[in-house]
Amino acid sequence: MKNFLLCTLIALLCHAHAYPATAQTEVQPDAIAAIGAPVLKWQRGSCFASWCQTGWYASPAVADLDKDGQPEVIWGSYDVVALNGATGALRWRAASGQRVWPGVAVADLTGDGTLEVIVGRGGDQVTVYNASGGVAWTRNPFGGGEVRTLAVADLDNDGKHEIIVGRASGGATRQLNVFQADGSVRPGWPARRDGEAGYGWGMYNENVAVADVTGDGFKDLIGPTDTHYITALDRDGNQLQASAIYNNSNPKGPKVWSQVGVHVGHAVDLRGYANCGTEHRPNFADSAPAIADVDGDGTREIIVVGNVYNCGASPYASLYRMAYVLKGDRSRWSNASFDWTAIPAPAPNSGPLSEDYSVIETPPANAVVADLDGDGLKEILFPSYDGRLHAYWLDKTQKGSWPFDVPGSGIRFASEPSVADLDNDGKAEVIFTSWPQKGGAAVGQLHILNHLGVQLFAVDLPASFPTGNVNGGLAAPTLANIDADADLEAVIGTIASGAVAYDLPGTANARVLWGTGRGSYARTGTSPEASCFKLTTSVAPDGAGAIGATPPNCGADYSPGSVVTLTTTANGTNTFLGWSGVGGGATTSVTMNADRSVTAHFLTFTPQATVTLPLILK
Questions:
Q1: What's the CA gap between 462 and 464, in Å, rounded?
Q2: Quick one: which of 161, 536, 542, 590 is 20 to 30 A from 611 by CA?
Q3: pTM (global) more than 0.90
């Protein structure tokens, strides 16, 4: 869908509206939960006086950009906006005529204690904004195409973050590029490089995950492409080696990941080619991978969802979506208890209801990994074009009421889900949005399911603005505390009503497991290694001052990826000197991707005693 509306001078005044929850709310009668139904807090964030820009697949971010103690909601449709979290009112707007596909990333790129906003757009653009919305720099990474793949990560472990982007256009090489914090291209990139072995094509969704999968202490990049091959690169753009079990396929000898095709049967992977028509394979054009330690053994696995198709049909015929679990050497994962060498058999009726975006927008093939039932093992969730949200246990079964059929008239699809134990009872809830097929004025819903796929709540999203068009949420909701109370909110980027926020009653002690699109505001597709991270603060010398911090959002701790604002107050005549454990001034921020410890240092002054000497006259 394209946005052809022109903004008049009068419509330059932007607004957000706070409303009570008047939309339809469905509650499962036999579902007992300590949490309450979502309550609409505000809507039309980023919209103009009479219309809203079209929203796509960008999950919002939440961070205290200006360090005033009030979180902002940062979201992109075409323009990128920062909104007051409590009210939805506009803080700043960065205008553009190019759409924002990937989730907006927020990070302290240089380690100086200030946050940047990083955005990928159409028109081959990646832009870094400062905390006030000013452009730090814009680059054109590929010379054409759309930037739909975006992530931010510290590749060198030096406290500075690199920006990773992927190309949504044709071309067998140069699918990924990496920029340093100052906008310069990192040496060795873009990659795969021209002339190198392997196969690849464009990346048409958020097609990268970033984590150490080789055990060398440095992060790697996993990038599925519009083929049945996966590109895997180290931090310098060098291709990762594949297991020697693939050496016998042509060309014989050692191989890199992008030389080993993926098929339904592992025997076909080993052979190196498929007999199309009887042996099927996946396409990874829209595949957003995840990286997680699924079984808790200390080693990370790669999870990627493929569109399995019949390569013998003309045109190719899509059959079903399915998850693959791979090791760091590209071989298929198994352990003593579970075996993903063979992928699960698809559930009945797993074929596409539609793959025509003129009928309904495409559901993203985004993998989410989280422990739903509290047993220490992670489940694999993904939405599919069959109109369902799937959840696979490591035994390759879908338990309880999974897969979940998205309710409503006509064709409806589910977004990437977020996952949190909202009532802290040890079992996680699954939160996602849905959208209807085009035509008419139907709306999607905000859904909350329990860990077994039983729907607890379904709340209609607002009507389009102006009315008369379909509305829904294409991207994962973001779970964060955006106001002064203790409960979480769900922040949603919608198709036609701007950014929308819902209060989630009874969630003050929630544990957020996968709280936004691609797992965190870095958009790296990584499942947090811990449910919550602890922040320890101290003052030196003791009693010289105090530290204020953003309230915890994960019990007494912080959910992974949370950006915590720290503010110092000096006692008496003492003076703040600086921090250890974090950079920045008297007010700074720290991103909770691990347990963190920070100390505020003060220069103290001790008042001198006043001594009165007697006057001696001679």
A1: 6
A2: 542
A3: no
DSSP string for residues in 128-173:
EE-TTS-EEEEE-SSSSSEEEEEEEE-SSSSS--EEEEEEES--SS
Assign residue 62 a region (left: φ > 0; alpha: ψ between -120 and 50; beta: otherwise): beta
Q: What is the dihedral of CA 296, 302, 306, 312, to 10 degrees?
A: -120
pLDDT, residue 581, reads 78
- Cα dist. 388→381, 405, 579 in Å? 11, 4, 49
pLDDT at 608: 60
Q: At residue 226, does pLDDT exceed 70? A: yes
Buried b (16+ CB within 10 A) or exposed e, 139-175: bebbeebbbbbbbbbbbeeeebbbbbbbbbbebbbbb
> What single DSSP character describes residue 266?
H
Asked if the model's pLDDT at residue 21 lies above 90, the reply is no
Residue 436, beta-bridge partner list: 412
Secondary structure string (H, E, C) spanning 502-520: EECCCCCCCEEEECCHHHC
CA Rg value for the chain: 25
Most confident of 24-28, 109-113, 270-274, 583-587: 270-274
Coil, helix or strand at residue 329: coil
Cα separation, 44 vs 493, whole angstroms: 10
> How far apart are alpha carbons 91 and 83 in whole angstroms?
5
* CA gap 280, 309 in Å, rounded: 6
177 burial level (CB within 10 Å; 0-12, 13-18, 19+) = buried
For residue 412, whether the previous peptide bond is cis, meaning omega lies within 30 degrees of 0, is no
* Residue-level pLDDT at 556: 75
What end-to-end distance do the CA atoms of the chain give, in Å? 100
Burial letters for 197-230: b for 16+ Cβ neighbours within 10 Å, e otherwise? ebbbbbbbbbbbbbbbbeeeeebbbbbbbbbbbb
- Cα(488)–Cα(502) distance, rounded to whole angstroms? 9
Alpha-carbon span 484 to 201, nearest angstrom: 47
Is 583 exposed, middle or buried (CB count within 10 Å of its CB: 0-12, 13-18, 19+)? Answer: middle
Among residues 181, 153, 163, 7, the alpha carbon closest in space to that of 93 is found at 7
Distance CA 372, CA 390 (A): 13
Give the type of residue at 401.
Answer: S
Q: Which parts of 317-460 are beta strand (E)? A: 317-326, 365-366, 368-370, 379-383, 388-392, 404-405, 412-414, 418-421, 429-436, 445-449, 455-460
